[in-house]
User: Fold this.
Amino acid sequence: ATETLIDRAKRSHDVEEALERVEQAEEALRRAREKDVRGAIAQALIDALERATRDQQLPAVFRRARELFSRITQGRYELRLRQEGVPEFTALDQIERRGRSLDQLSSGTRVQLLLAVRIAFVEQQEQGVKLPLLLDEVLGNSDDERARAIMEAVLELAREGRQIFYFTAQMDEVARWRALFVEGMAAGVELREIDLLQVRGLERQLEIPFVVPPARS
Assistant:
């Protein structure tokens, strides 16, 4: 019986057939891989052309607002304009790789976006000369998150060479700005305080409170 089994095995082609199936499977896998690679490259080229075409059709104000918004948020968000149907702004979260509508953004991020869009419009009117930005107690009704977002955005604009005048009669707001410089968050920005009461020869009625760094957003 053993000799019969051995003789049958010698005449069998099971191994050859199995090796042939392996080769066929490997060839099919190579073809599928090459197809997927070509598809991925084609999609990347299509996406690149779509972005280039989309950007060419967008106004310069939007492109500048997108650049400012990205810088202000330290690369976290990219401003998008959805043009299908009713045009609307969206923000691409670069960390989570998902789009967010404006009402899905935090209040601080919405403030940063609003500031970026306004500055972009201003720059289109400047004709190359950067006009000073005047802010009057814009932190007055802001919680810690919004205040921090506004201050960091203003500092980013100052780093680009824009002069910022911030007016306030609130001593706690002065303390907030001082705290940001104490933290080292204002590197590359020159701070100069002007006490208008002192300039006018009047006596100060309120003292600036102890500097407490504002909470991070």
Residues 66 and 78 are 6 Å apart (CA to CA).
